[in-house]
Amino acid sequence: MEKLMQIAKKNANHVLIRNIKEEMTNVSFENGELKNIETSIASNIALTLIKDGKIGFAYTTNLIDREQFVKNALTSLKGGVDGSYGISNSGDPVKLNSYDKSIENIGTSQLVDEAKRTIDYLKTKTDGQVNLEQGMVKEEIRILNSNGVDYSQKNSSYFLYPMVLYPGSYSSVMRAFASKSLKNIDQNILDLLLNLYNSSNKQVCPPGGQMKVLFLPEAFYTIAWRMISALSSENAYYNISPIKDKIGSKIFSSMITAYDNPIDDTMPGSRSFDDEGTVTSKVMLIENGVLQSFYFDRKTAKKMGTKSTGNGYCREISRLPKPDVRNFTIEAGALTLEQMIKSIDKGVIVPSVLGAHSGNIPNGDFSVGLSPGIYVENGEIVGHVNDSMVAGNIYDVLNKVIAIENEKHLASMGCFPAVLFDNINVVMK
Question: pLDDT (tens digit, 9 = 90+) per residue, 2-55?
Fold first, then answer.
């Protein structure tokens, strides 16, 4: 990388190099039987040049000819992409406990054994179909630039997604378990899945209408997706976010506190620097319902006259960084999940959804199929509902929060507790 930096610096005002090495293993089971094992190893390099205020970019998976690689980036300068925001200066990233060395000794046979142990426990206590997704990731990240930044970090993660499917459908109850190396899944997670499934195994057909809706963490990404969109500085700058002028204003229930915390190394995938080489920190976005900040990369920070919050990330190394979150979190509340269910006189529990992309995401609208809806009356689970939907807008429903679970759980798009809403429109067929 140092040689590449030397060559690139001769041809540009500023240089940023990203090198990411990743080894990933995925294991899947269907109906209790091993379905697939996949392993991939990749090493990727991305080169960003800034010359005369414009950006040149190239990436490769095989750095053979450094001179040609730099020429490729120089050629892309013709696109005229704005690079006036420059590159980051060197800082002092916090040292994270993001890598568990024991993961180096984990093989696929051990992954399969843990998966089978989990499946066997579930199958002895339910007649539902048991599926499971499992995997581990080892990652090395290095970011260096011509301002003296040279940061590196190793990450390790292990994940397990057990699910129990309802007969004749892909509807299921599921929960994610994650750590920095192979660990036995907590039994209370499995017992929760069993309780939710076994108590709702009967199919029921209640009337729809306005009722309480309890989003479990696995389904809350429906709401979080729209929150993350609204909190993006890029969407605020381009007048896409409905809350672009609401800093300091109350936009949600005072029970809602949300932040991005990439340096929380209790969760796999924490980061002490972003993909632009900016040092990261906890960014408070919404506190007690009041909008505190958007999240910024360098480009949008310059456009909006502020500083990057360390939220310049690439979902794919083949793209330039843009504003994104790393560990988006909704703060926990006061009640247990059991207490929350007991408080429902009439309503549905949402363990998973279909069509979370439906609706105008930037505007906060959603209309999702429940997969399934678990129907509750007088604090007791009665059964599950097929062909049901929940629709609304986050600026309405997030002002109808009744209760928030006292624990957070890693799920799609972040870390969330279960959240109970009042008077939400539920359509039953």
Answer: 899 999 999 999 999 999 999 999 999 999 999 999 999 999 999 999 999 999
pLDDT digits (tens, 9 = 90+) for 216-254: 999 999 999 999 999 999 999 999 999 999 999 999 999
Q: Does the bond joining 242 to the residue before it have cis omega, within 30 degrees of 0?
A: no
For each of the domains in the chain, give its residue range(s) and CATH number, in order of start.
2-194 (3.30.2290.10), 201-429 (no CATH)
Report if pTM > 0.85.
yes
The rounded distance, in Å, linking the Cα atoms of 188 and 409 is: 13
Structure tokens at 95: 């040292």
Which is nearest to 309 in space by CA: 414, 240, 229, 233? 233
Distance CA 243, CA 236 (A): 7
Half-sphere exposure of residue 17: CA atoms within 13 angstroms, side-chain side: 27
